[in-house]
Amino acid sequence: MWPDRRLLDLFKTEFPIVLAPMAGVMDAELVIAAAQGGALGSLPCALLSPEKAREQVNIIRQRVSAPVNLNFFCHKAVDADPKRETTWRQRLTPYYEELGLDPAAPINVANRAPFDAAFCEVVEVLKPEIVSFHFGLPDPSLLKRVKAAGCIVMSSATIVKEAIWLEENGADVIIAQGAEAGGHRGMFLTENIAEQPGTFALVPQVVDAVKVPVIAAGGIMDGRGIAAAFALGAAGVQLGTAYLRCPESKVIAPARLALAQAHDDSTVITNVMTGRPARGVANRVMREVGPISPDAPAFPNAASGLAPLRAAAEKLGRVDFTNLWAGQAVRMGREMPAAELTRALAGAALARFAQMAD
Ligand SMILES: Cc1cc2nc3c(=O)[nH]c(=O)nc-3n(C[C@H](O)[C@H](O)[C@H](O)COP(=O)(O)O)c2cc1C
């Protein structure tokens, strides 16, 4: 028996386990597999056009009747900063030369668009059961439309202040994202990375501060982690890194290898890959330019200068410039189909609860 049934009742999934949305490394295929295993599948839309998001949801709906979570970034778009862009290009020039690329060639701008009216229309048409946001919440007028479409709204908090803000501003569920978590820090009321609490410290403090159900995220990889999250007061868990090595993910082969070979001390928080702090396995550019660099242009523009390098290096089978987003417990990842993994995770958690009750 799950010690807390609030999310099961709310989501109507078999398990209170959420497959984290992971932009860039997954699509409908992983969502479908995790949903078939009993989890809530999340489709990351940050790198998709509204048309593509619609197409992906249609694929999911054709294959499973489970609820679905559509995930969006809602950062504030910043104006271009030509001076910083130039400094960044200069910093990356030796890599361009090494790979035989022209550092002066024009680059397509990074395409991580924040949630806007076009995406909101997609939500209104498709009416996903759940919509989750990263980096706060969208403009109140857009959020009102999402809620009017009947969607349950979730968003990530990295400190208690953010959790309280999210609850006050309309979030129905809060994802407490500890510092262990892979991918971008969802931080939006603070910029201080050093102050970010870990999952074990954050979850009970968020649970005490808000009334809405709390989902724990960051470093959870097996039944022990899931049981610990519930013991801390969470009503569910969101796992990203645990699903990265599933055959249904879109992680490219050399990145899979890097994940498989990673240890507990292989990840760092960096801003050089996109301009926003995110945790991943350290690659060459993170080590040599970062992991934190004041030269990195604001999110998402740092990624633009890296894009040609990434493409050229990947052609050579190298991940020197590839985002290897992963959490601190990446070492515990398993290569297993996502439905099977979900059932194994749930089974192991339930066994732990039973053991703890003895
Ligand atoms: C590869 C990767 C990509 C991610 N992309 C997103 C994203 O697009 N949207 C989002 O809300 N969270 C994203 N996250 C963060 C997850 O939602 C979640 O907080 C994190 O995976 C939990 O920690 P764990 O990786 O240790 O399980 C990403 C995480 C990873 C590992």
Description of the molecule:
This protein has 358 residues and is α/β, with parallel strands linked by helices. 40% of the residues lie in helices and 13% in strands. It has 13 helices and 11 strands. The strands form 2 sheets. Strands 1-9-8-6-5-4-3-2 form an 8-stranded parallel sheet. Strand 2, helix 3 (50-63) and strand 3 (68-73) form a beta-alpha-beta unit. Helix 2 (28-36) runs parallel beside helix 3 (50-63), helix 3 (50-63) packs parallel to helix 5 (117-126) and helix 4 runs parallel beside helix 12 (302-315). The longest helix has 20 residues, at 338-357. It is globular. Bound molecules: flavin mononucleotide.
How are the SSEs placed, and which strands pair?
Blueprint: H1 6-11, E1 17-19, H2 28-36, E2 41-44, H3 50-63, E3 68-73, H4 82-98, H5 117-126, E4 130-134, H6 140-148, E5 152-157, H7 160-168, E6 173-177, E7 183-184, H8 199-209, E8 214-217, H9 223-231, E9 236-239, H10 253-260, E10 267-270, E11 278-281, H11 284-289, H12 302-315, H13 338-357
Parallel strand pairs: 1-9, 2-3, 3-4, 4-5, 5-6, 6-8, 8-9
Antiparallel strand pairs: 7-11, 10-11
Bound molecules: flavin mononucleotide (FMN).
Flavin mononucleotide is lined by residues 20-23, 25, 44, 46, 71, 134, 156, 177, 180-184, 217-220, 238-242, 325-327, 329.
